[in-house]
């Protein structure tokens, strides 16, 4: 049987979209989840103007969730724009891409993994004002200690704990001072 290609008009899209959506049990075949009809897109295989219709050019595929359809559209456009279509088919690229994405990351012979610089957590430097505040109250808060802590270059969990303890102590002193002032004002009345 010879393939028959039916050229559609814009007005034909919604009825065909609804028919295919219902045949797909009102689900997106890629996501496997239900979708509202108004969120569906009628996906088709793109062709160049000079190309003839074929089962791989210009024909409707199915209805997809609109976001999935846009994702595949961007993927196909990037595939063509980057010239990858000259080296491999999109389907083959995706199959190999899945294998690649599911593969384990690089590990050297000693078992080490390497973190890309863009993923390395940016360490905060210790502020001089925090260090001075900690030093001012450190010996009061730590009477058994005889020396002040050295100023670290970067914040650590221990340093953050020390700053928080100092800030709590300062707040307690401020609260006590405010309470003494309030009591003095009451006595003066």
Instruction: Evaluate the radius of gyration.
Output: 34 Å
By CATH, the architecture of the largest domain is named: 3-Layer(aba) Sandwich
> Could you report the average pLDDT, rounded to the nearest whole number?
90
Which range best describes the helical content: under 10%, 10-25%, 25-40%, 40-55%, 55-70% or over 70%?
A: 40-55%
CATH topology of the largest domain: His-Me finger endonuclease fold
Termini separation (Å)? 107 Å
Order of helices and strands: HEEHHHH
How is this structure best described in words?
- By secondary structure, the chain is mainly α.
- It folds into two domains: 10-102, His-Me finger endonuclease fold (3-Layer(aba) Sandwich), CATH 3.40.1800.10; 128-188, no CATH class.
- Helix content is 46%, strand content 6%.
- It has five helices and two strands.
- It has a two-stranded antiparallel ribbon.
- The longest helix has 32 residues, at 157-188.
- The chain is elongated and about 105 Å long.
